[in-house]
Structures are given as structure tokens and as C-alpha cells.
Amino acid sequence: MSVVIAGTGxxxxxxxxxPFVEYGVAAARAALxxxxxEWTDVQFAVGADTIRNGYxxxxxxxxxxxxxxxxxxxxxxCYAACASGAQAIDIARTRILAxxxxxxxxxxxxxxxxxxxxxxxxxxPDDPDWLRFRLLGAANPAYFALYARRRMAxxxxxxxxxxxxxxxxxxxGSLNEAARYRKTVTAExxxxxxxxxxxLRLMDICATSDGxxxxxxxxxxxxxxxxxxxxxRLAAVSTVTPSFPNTVLELPCFATDSTAAVPPPERAFRASxxxxxxxxxxxxxxxxxxxxxxxxxxxxxxxWVEDVGLAPPGEAAKLLRAGDTxxxxxxxxxxxxxxxxxxxxxxxxxxxxxxxxxxxxxxxxGARQVVNARAGLAANQGLFxxxxxxIAIT
Amino acid sequence: MLPSKRLCHIGSMAAxxxxxxxxxxxxxxxxxxxxxxxxxxxxxxxxxGFCRNPHCSGEDxxxxxxxxxxxxxxxxNACYPPPAPFVAAEPYTPVTLAAVELAEEGIVxxxxxxxxTVDDLHVGMELELTAGPLADGPLVWMWGRP
Lengths: 394, 146
Prior knowledge:
The structure holds 2 protein chains of 2 kinds.
Chain A: E1 3-14, H1 20-35, E2 44-48, H2 54-58, H3 60-68, E3 74-78, H4 84-97, E4 103-110, H5 128-136, H6 140-155, H7 159-173, H8 187-192, E5 195-197, E6 200-201, E7 210-219, H9 220-225, E8 233-238, H10 269-281, E9 290-292, H11 298-307, H12 316-322, H13 338-342, H14 346-362, E10 375-382, E11 386-393
Parallel strand pairs in A: 2-3, 2-4, 9-10
Antiparallel strand pairs in A: 1-7, 1-8, 4-7, 5-6, 8-11, 10-11
Helix pairs in contact in A: 1-3, 4-14, 7-11
Chain B: H1 5-10, E1 22-25, E2 28-36, E3 42-43, E4 61-65, E5 69-78, E6 95-102, E7 107-113, E8 126-133, E9 139-144
Parallel strand pairs in B: 7-9
Antiparallel strand pairs in B: 1-2, 2-3, 2-4, 5-6, 5-8, 6-7, 8-9
């Protein structure tokens, strides 16, 4: 038995300044339309939570269900930072696989403030996410910059390489009607943008955005019964956590785990996220037609390319320079345009990645279509140890 | 007792910005971690209660001073004033941050860097623990030139 992605929907990313519920409902309705189903067909709805929009955001499943109109459908709400959407999908597909429902709707949406993400308000000296700002002034880009600098020191990556990632993703994003940034950029523009957290410049770092995404998941049997498209199926959903000791300095931590007593695990956390998805799908990196990875920064895309096994450690820039990861290349990475073109709408982002997987695998991605796409992977990581990798196949 | 001249330099008259994470003792700054009595794993920030090693059921986590010198794992800066609850100095000069690897503890610890910019740093160089004031007064640990 497998779970079918019957429909996808997105509210365009931007800085619209409206309640997140509107984006979520728009995305949900679009996904239902694409699936050829009604909201009243949905038996189970999962909302990926947003923590910056008050109580309705904490109980997103109920919020979306109420906005779509109470039907008595069962609901769940979950939060896993940037991986919230993947966990929401995992909850829905597990319920379908368990035979407890046939039709599930997964929705994530966010409305974001201007500027750097800051900790949730109030004086909370017991919260590491509050303390890292208070004691260090370590906003999110600081962590991205630490990884970027490490790549430069270890592998010889350059600012030009990082700029090339942005140029590549902006070109793909210019072809995506749901993206927030639709303009192509040049390397010169990236390299002339203001330094934010050395070595990363403004155009190396993803923005924070408003947006909404939804998918409709159904059992294969139900899809056949209702004559829905069964073209795209979920082959794996990995939501693994790190293995102790985690030796990468993760957002929002002050330190890594210690290796004083236990040696580092065989795979670092990001690599273990994709590995678990490959194991579950019975596929490997060579089977992929394309990948969507979480490019919170340009440099981080290069980390991910290695972590999901598309290149050995240190060699992602080589693929980039050869054009392998561009649209039309051997293994396109972020054909949607990635976070570079979207900006991050946290609870919607992992779901948006799955929307792109589905469109590519259905062959409906238009000008950014990956030729003959058969299998796609979406990888992501939420702070506080939330892994997220989804493989979809046709 | 009057503080020595060097103590004044560190700023030990200021209260720590956080209790129990570091000490200033005769002008020598130490990070305070904890170490599990059973498996010897080290924790920073200091962890109490239960060891996080999944193969260890230890509950005796005693305070332990961490090594004062380590090598730079990576570094960066904040070119724009970080948001609250950070209190930015006015006029603002970029805060430098370094993640420093302590060999004996097998741990990387993030901290502000004192009196150095990103142009002075490189991955692998040695830094030593010191302390300095936040813009609104309280003291925090910082990495500095040995």
C-alpha cells in the first residue's frame, strides 16, 4: 500500500501582511481543486503550526479546519520548526497507512514580521533561543555564516561559488509563479550586496516570507475508487533526530555535544536525515532526478548537496561550477528556486518543497520542468533536532 | 577588598550576564560545564539532572571547569545590530563571534570575540577564554587572543 499525493496548492510567497489563515485556506482550496476533491471529503486535517501568530498558530489544524468550515473531521497540529510541514505530512500519511482514514489534508502557512527572526517575546533566561540573542547577539545568519566560513577553510569554496548558487536559484525562481523573488540576478549584484554575517552577504541569506502550502494525501485504493491521479506517490518521509553526540554547532545552541566519552556517529545529522529517507524508499542518490534542499544560505545549499549524497564531502562546488545542479543540468538542485527565491515561511516550507516534487514528477512544472523526472527528494532541518526528508516517485 | 588593576580590566565588578556558566577568578576566566560522573561526558551550558548520553543512566553531573584554550572551528560577525534581547552599543560596531573547539572536552563553544575582527581570525587559530561587558553592563565570556 502506498500514499498518493493527490493535489498540491500554494498561496504565493511574499510580504503580504495578512493573517496566515488566509494563505493556508487559499493553499488548501487550491490543493483540493487540483485533487478533484471537496473539503467535505477530507477525513483528517493536519496543520503545521506557526509560533509567531498567537494561539490560532499553535493549533493550526483547528484554525484551518474552522476556516474551511467545521465538518467534524479529525485534526492534528504539530510544530517542528522548519520541519513542521514534514512532520505534518508524516502524521497524515501514517494515519492513512494505518487504515484510519483515506483522505488527509496537510496545511502550513505563516505571516512573518520584518527583519531578522527574533525570539518569541518576554524575558526567558531558561530558553536557549532567547539566551543566544541576549548573550551573543547570534541571529540565525550567524550560524549559516559559521558553516559557510568552514566550507571556505576546509574545501576552498569562495564567495563567487556562493554567489553562483544565488544566480542559479534566482533563475529557477524567475520561472516559478509562487516565488516571492522573480528577478534574475548576477554574481556581481550578489557580491555587491551588503555583508550581513561574514562571509555571507544579504543576497546569500534567505528572507523571511509570508506564504502557504497544502497537499492532499489519499490512500491508493481511494484514489482508484474516485479516479484521482495516482501519478505521484510518497516513497519515504524521514523525520529522524540527531545521534549523540551531535558534533555540529546547531541553531540555537551555544555548544556541540561532547565527544569526550562517545565518539561521533557514523553520519552527521544532516547526512542521517537523507540516509533514512533513502533506506525507507529503497533508493539512493543516483536514483534521483532532482532535489529540493533547504538553502537558508547559498553556502548551505552546497552542504546539503553533499549531505544528501549528490557529491562527496567538499565537492559540491565542483558540481555547481560544472552546471550539474542548474536547471537543465545532470541533477538539478532547487528547481523551484529554493529559499533564495521564496524566503522562508517556516511551517509552509517543507510542504512547498513537496508541492515542487509533485509538480516536477507530474510534468507540470512548466518552464522549469526537469526532463523525465522520476524521483525527487526534499530535505530540510528544523532547529532543536528536527530532521525532514521526503522522497516522492512516479 | 579592592579589586586589582587587571580585575578591573576584565570588568569583574560587573555582574555576570548569566549565573553559573563562567567564573572570573584572579582575572582568569573559566567556562563552567558539568561532567557526568558515570560516563565522563562534558556539558556546556552546564547540565544538571540527567546525562544525555543515550547509553548512560548517570544522574550525577558535577560542575567542571573547561579548558581555557581551543582552536577556531569557525567564525563570523554581526554587521547589523542584532535584535532584542541583545542590547547593541551605540554607535554600533560589529560583534565578532567564534566557535572554538576544546580538544580535551571534545566540544565546540560559541562566544563573542574580544578586541578582534573577522579579519584577524582564521579557522584553526588558537584563542583563549576571557570576558567582557555587554553594552548594558553585565559580563559575558568571550574568546580573545592568548
